[in-house]
Amino acid sequence: SAVISQKPSRDICQRGTSLTIQCQVDSQVTMMFWYRQQPGQSLTLIATANQGSEATYESGFVIDKFPISRPNLTFSTLTVSNMSPEDSSIYLCSVRTSLHDTQYFGPGTRLTVL
Amino acid sequence: AQSVTQPDIHITVSEGASLELRCNYSYGATPYLFWYVQSPGQGLQLLLKYFSGDTLVQGIKGFEAEFKRSQSSFNLRKPSVHWSDAAEYFCAVGALANQAGTALIFGKGTTLSVSS
Questions:
Q1: A&B contacts, CB < 8 Å
Q2: A-chain residue closest to B96, CA distance
Q3: Who has greater pLDDT, A81 or B96?
Q4: Percent of chain A residues past pLDDT 90, beyond the cut
Q5: Alpha-carbon torsion B62, B110, A34, A101, what sign?
Q6: Structural domain boundaries of chain B?
Q7: B102 at the A interface (CB within 8 A)?
Q8: pLDDT, tens digit, for every residue of A8-44?
Q9: For chain A, first and last CA: distance in Å?
Q10: Is A48 at the interface with chain B, CB within 8 A?
């Protein structure tokens, strides 16, 4: 299994600002992902964080809005840029150690944009 | 494209009654399937998973699910529901193939309410 921590756990931000969310895993993992869960909704995949290269974004998500870094096999950041109230969501980091393993989720970062 | 459908948005069952939550998937490759539960204000907890083998899988908290390839379904069941089972339940599907970076795709979820 993998234990995932995220910082911050929650934040309240002003419109037009940016927030960087950190994800730390207690072991090296092959695959890291970022999801968004809007209020009362399911999880939507934002991107796959690739070590040493640009993230792979899903349709509807772009690098300028959600830049992602992954400098090593245990750490990643997601930045939510130029925020608007529509960005108010829970952002979750997720990892898989291998294709035949479970996908684990961090506790999430609850973001409110005013 | 892969997708997961949970037809029931909200289900209410009486405490002690049986439960079945439906999940249908569309996936071109051999799928692996999960059920997660999310209690209010809490993170995602894995209930059970199916990779291969026996199509009836047992999970935590007395839950089980049955994979039916012919129906593209992976329904979650529990014989006797407890009030603490009230939560949001998500079905998810992923690829069991050599596709690096493949992430789980989630259904929209089913909210379970338990009445006394």
A1: 53
A2: A99
A3: A81
A4: 76
A5: positive
A6: 3-115
A7: yes
A8: 999 999 999 999 999 999 999 888 999 999 988 899 9
A9: 37
A10: yes
| Mean pLDDT of the region A76-87 | 97
The predicted-structure confidence for B103-114, as pLDDT tens digits, reads as follows: 888 999 999 999
Chain B nearest CA to A104, separation (Å): 8
Q: Say which of B51, B92, B108 has its CB closest to residue A100.
A: B51
Which of B46, B101, B105 minimises the CB distance to A102?
B46
CB contact under 8 A, A50 and B94: no
What residues have CB less than 8 Å from B37, skipping those under 6 apart?
A: B44, B45, B47, B87, B88, B89, B90
pLDDT value, residue B96: 52
Cβ distance A33 to B103 less than 8 Å, yes or no, reads yes
Contact A24, A74 (CB under 8 A): yes
Nearest to A42 among B94, B103, B106 (CB): B106
Could you tell me the CATH superfamily of domain A10-113?
Answer: Immunoglobulins (2.60.40.10)
Q: What is the pLDDT of residue B48?
A: 94
Q: Is 2.60.40.10 the CATH classification of the domain at B3-115?
A: yes
A85: left (phi over 0), alpha (psi -120 to 50) or beta: alpha
Beta bridge partners of B75: B66
